[in-house]
Amino acid sequence: MLEITFSFELCTFNLNPLVTTSWLAEHLNDENVRIIDTRWYLLQPTKGASDYHNAHIPNALYLSVDQHLAARPLSDAKTGRHPLPDADTFAETMMRAGISNSTHVVVYDDAGGANAARLWWLLRYFSSEDPLAQENVSLLDGGLSQWVAEGRPLSGETPIFPRGTFHARANPHMVVTKAEMIALTRNAHALILDARAPERYRGETEPIDARAGHIPGAKNAPVAGNLCSAQDARFLNAAELQARYDALGANGADEIVAYCGSGVNAAADLFALHLAGYHNTRLYAGSFSEWSRDADLPIVTGSAPY
């Protein structure tokens, strides 16, 4: 079980899922800590790896959203852009990174956790047989931006760790299929959250997916709204996050389903909901990239859910 740490700086109150930069600085060389850099950019897929090799938090390894945290999309375009990896492939990725089921994994990005939360969610998804292992993953609060702002050291060296031992078994109850999503759009007791930027939700722009707009019934919960401010990428405290999601209807929902463009950023909303105390959450892994490819499915434009 992770040690609970607290920080009263500005607006952040850290529990197990979050670690502060101060905590990480003290544990950079811990044998059972693995630090993972997940920087990724939608329209610049190689930039994250390049930026990592230029400078990263010491002892961090890089895992790519495209290459390591997703499977290849099927050629028949029946999946979203970032399908979930299978258990064996994910386990191999973790073991190559020196990660075992008992390893404390600390993940960061430079996007307020929008990409890092993908690995947080995957580690929980594939640890269905080990509830304690589900708690062995944290996000770095404020990410690389906070680390750099505090003048902490960076490195250009890629560390090498002994191979880990990781057993993966997926929890299908954490995922929503397209067929289930269709039914959920007609379920008054379900809350559907769209984690994308407001202009994509409204259908004013769509840089990559087949059609513009949002899934009927979805409410917009941009991942940036989970953070203190545009200048402070640390998460709001639990009470503030609860208030945010309750205003969207979380406190009256039987289940909460999040999606985004391809199932990556939506995990940041699920992470924030976890901080707020909500656990009746699921991920629509195919997300809007899958939904928008099906010409038979309806899409809504504008700021209203329907």
Provide a descriptive summary of the structure in words:
This protein is an alpha/beta fold and 306 residues long. It has 2 domains: 18-149, Oxidized Rhodanese, domain 1 (3-Layer(aba) Sandwich); 172-291, Oxidized Rhodanese, domain 1 (3-Layer(aba) Sandwich). It has 11 helices and 10 strands. The strands form 2 sheets. Strands 1-5-4-2-3 form a 5-stranded parallel beta sheet. 46% of the residues are buried.
Major sheet: 5 strands, parallel
Average pLDDT figure? 93
Class per helix and strand makeup: alpha/beta
Q: Which CATH top level class of the largest domain fits?
A: Alpha Beta
Low-pLDDT residue spans: 1-15
Portion of residues in beta strands equals 5-15%
Lateral arrangement of strands in the main beta sheet:
1-5-4-2-3
- SSE succession: EHEHEHEHHEHEHEHEHEHEH
Characteristic terms for this protein:
alpha/beta; Oxidized Rhodanese, domain 1; 5-stranded parallel β-sheet; 26% helix; globular; disordered N terminus
Give a short synopsis of this structure:
The chain is α/β, with parallel strands linked by helices.
